[in-house]
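Appendix C: a fully annotated inverse folding record. The material below is reproduced so that readers can follow the format used throughout the book. The structure is listed first as tokens, followed by the designed sequence.
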């Protein structure tokens, strides 16, 4: 088990003790395969986004060697076009189960690489990962549309799906800024990326018509804030506007507005978005609410969700990414420098604003 002394920044009264944090970190570590892959849980699939989220949680807990192994898995198994498949059976790169290549999945490792660099100060790591980040970013930006939004994915045969998702594009916005930061470290200017991130931010902020209507999903509600595209009064207005539609006091955040189902990942991410807005008290309250999802008798991991009308855990799974999102929210609230820098965004490159309204 991870030593409680390595997780002091993951202590949050009413949410996690040092021993509980250490147990959760050990739970994620137990899911990680010897080759570095972190599936949702043993026997389930790996996707690149959630793999990265779990690796970032390991870094926040001081488990830097484990996190580096996770990024090396991505580097070794990147496809020639810069992408990864959407899903691999139990993290086995030879057994992809979804051969679509989703842009937000492919962009997100740049966030993890930058987080690891800030956690360790290891410039040689950034240099080793730079070809991976550059290729992945190129794949993603090949699907940027004239309005600035990012097309959702390419099918296995290469066919582009140009419809854009607000959640995915908001996540890509954060990832592009982290990729630009990595470019500065290795000394490679990327003016096209700078323009791309500005155009993408403009689309998220001003042109909701660019995106598929997924309004019932809570991620579409808070991700423009979490991804850094919406800030200040705009962020505040967005969160307040749909608070009652998605938040269930005492239980957490609905995954979708029309179902009696709260989920740990969405709740922790909303808490992180609230921290980004400067509303730490509300963030802590959300995290305290989802203590009912913690499974201390299962290694301190967290159930994915809970159907409150049926008083039932559903699905019956303990996912590495749910635990990871909780630990990252706690790390931000605890002042972990790398985590606050990656999600707070003040020191990330902003890119260029488009020459329009």
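Designed amino acids, in order:
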């Amino acid at each position: 088990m991870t030593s409680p002394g390595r997780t002091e920044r993951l202590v949050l009264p009413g949410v996690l003790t040092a021993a509980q944090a250490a147990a959760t970190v050990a739970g994620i570590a137990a899911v990680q395969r010897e080759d570095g892959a972190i599936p949702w849980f043993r026997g389930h699939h790996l996707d690149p986004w959630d793999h990265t989220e779990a690796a970032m949680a390991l870094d926040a807990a001081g488990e830097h060697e484990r996190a580096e192994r996770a990024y090396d898995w991505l580097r070794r198994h990147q496809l020639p076009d810069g992408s990864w498949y959407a899903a691999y059976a139990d993290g086995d790169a030879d057994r992809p189960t979804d051969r679509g290549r989703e842009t937000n999945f492919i962009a997100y490792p740049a966030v993890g690489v930058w987080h690891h660099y800030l956690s360790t100060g290891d410039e040689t790591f950034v240099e080793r990962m730079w070809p991976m980040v550059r290729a992945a970013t190129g794949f993603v930006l090949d699907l940027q549309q004239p309005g600035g939004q990012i097309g959702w994915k390419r099918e296995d045969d290469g066919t582009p799906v140009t419809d854009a998702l607000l959640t995915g594009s908001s996540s890509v916005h954060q990832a592009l800024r982290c990729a630009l930061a990595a470019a500065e470290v290795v000394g490679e200017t990327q003016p096209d990326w700078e323009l791309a991130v500005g155009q993408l931010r403009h689309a998220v902020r001003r042109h909701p018509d660019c995106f598929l209507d997924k309004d019932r999903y809570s991620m579409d509600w808070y991700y423009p804030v979490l991804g850094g595209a919406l800030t200040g009064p705009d962020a505040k207005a967005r969160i307040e506007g749909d608070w009652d539609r998605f938040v269930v006091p005492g239980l957490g955040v609905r995954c979708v507005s029309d179902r009696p189902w709260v989920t740990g990942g969405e709740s922790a991410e909303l808490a992180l978005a609230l921290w980004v807005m400067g509303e730490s008290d509300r963030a802590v309250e959300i995290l305290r609410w989802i203590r009912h999802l913690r499974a201390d008798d299962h290694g301190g991991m967290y159930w994915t969700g809970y159907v409150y009308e049926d008083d039932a855990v559903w699905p019956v799974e303990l996912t590495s990414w749910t635990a990871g999102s909780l630990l990252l929210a706690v790390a931000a609230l605890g002042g972990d420098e790398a985590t606050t820098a990656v999600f707070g965004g003040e020191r990330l490159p902003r890119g260029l604003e488009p020459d329009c309204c």
